[in-house]
Amino acid sequence: MAFSRLGLKTAYLGKIGEDDNGARIFTSLKKEKVDFIGALGDVSGYSVILDSLHEDRTILAYKGCNDDLSFREVDLGVLKTKWFYFSSMMGESLKTLKKLAIFASKNKIRVAFNPANYLAEKGVSEIKDILEVTSVIILNKEEAELLSGKNTINESLVFLKKYAKEYVVITDGSRGAYCYDGKNVFHGKPRSALKIVETTGAGDAFSSGFIGFLVMGKDVETAMKAGFLEAESVIQGYGAKNELLSKKKILSVLSRDKRKIEKYSLNEKYVPEDKWFVLCNGEKISSLEKLLEKAGSMPEHVYSHHVSPEKNDFAAWVKDVFHEKELAKKLSSAKTRKDFKIALKNHLEKKRR
To answer: Does residue 110 lie within any of the structural domains?
Structure first.
């Protein structure tokens, strides 16, 4: 219904039970102008949310007939669309999702895929058929690390981009969201000092805003801002959908949103863990930014161990791993630690321009 509120023609393909909860779902879909193009089952799925005194909560989910949608129950004739948004399914519904992925590929339908924890933890092999036709993979940090088997956001971005045709998006709570297009990373953060009531639905709200604005043909930076605005609205009220924004409202707020979406090349900030620089005291450096930070804080005996008249381990690392020959030359010729930091700082600032 988030897409419908954004003014997009929206339909729900799934399975709803012929019970009281199902009747409530149908009423809600009709109110939100979302067409139902799925099938009927016995018992509808539902969730119980255990709220806390603070911002967190626990959700207990019963899938009901949600997992029982067979491919033969899908009317392919009504699937005339430019986008599919796939959420996590299990059982028969997962088999159907895989067949719909093939259908999407054959009919040039772009796919956004949001695999939840229980699906992500099964690894790539379980959902490879879906991933390989996906345009946008969007998930949170925990889900990304479960699915990729990696330990950092950057490593997960690189790994998952092998599958996503356009973007990999990873959300990380108050630390913001990252979008990778295979060359550049776009990073933004939510507004601070928000009055958070509860966080249910924040990730889904971000996803709907981001994907919704891509569907409208907007650029990545605008789509990310829209995602943040949706999430920020939702967490200031109860429930996952009550505070979702209308198109008129989000466009009004968006026009006044001045937050910065940082853009940088992943090569500037990321190297695989097996190529991190290991200091003589055991600490590790994973990027040029971290090198600049450590250059100002590491003890003198550590710095002098790696930098002497005979050698400059940092310059060699910069040349071999980042292939920055000019920077390596400047670092090698630095007479003092201050000169070293200035050369590195100037390089990074020039890259950001």
So the answer is: yes
What's the domain count of the chain?
2
Q: Encode pLDDT of 171-216 as tens digits.
A: 998 889 999 998 889 999 998 777 877 777 788 899 999 999 999 9
| Three-state SS sequence of the chain | CHHHHCCCCEEECCEEECCHHHHHHHHHHHHCCEEECCEEECCCCEEEEEECCCCCEEEEEECHHHHHCCHHHCCHHHCCCCEEEEECCCHHHHHHHHHHHHHHHHCCCEEEEECCHHHHCCCHHHHHHHHCCCCEEEEEHHHHHHHHCCCCHHHHHHHHCCCCCCEEEEECHHHCEEEECCCEEEEECCCCCCCCCCCCCHHHHHHHHHHHHHHCCCCHHHHHHHHHHHHHHHCCCCCCCCCCCCHHHHHHHHCCCCCCCEEEEHHHHCCCHHHCEECCCCCEECCHHHHHHHHHHCCHHHHHHHEECCEEHHHHHHHHHHCCHHHHHHHHHCCCHHHHHHHHHHHHHHHHC
Enclosing domain of residue 182: 65-266
Say yes or no: 173 and 261 in one domain.
yes
Residue 319 and residue 234 share a domain: no
Does any domain span residue 38?
Answer: no
**pTM of the predicted model as reported, rounded to 2 decimal places:** 0.76
Residue 31 reports pLDDT greater than 60: yes
* 48 belongs to a structural domain: no
| pLDDT, tens digit, 9 for 90 and up, residues 265-317 | 776 566 667 788 999 999 999 888 889 999 999 999 999 999 999 999 999 99
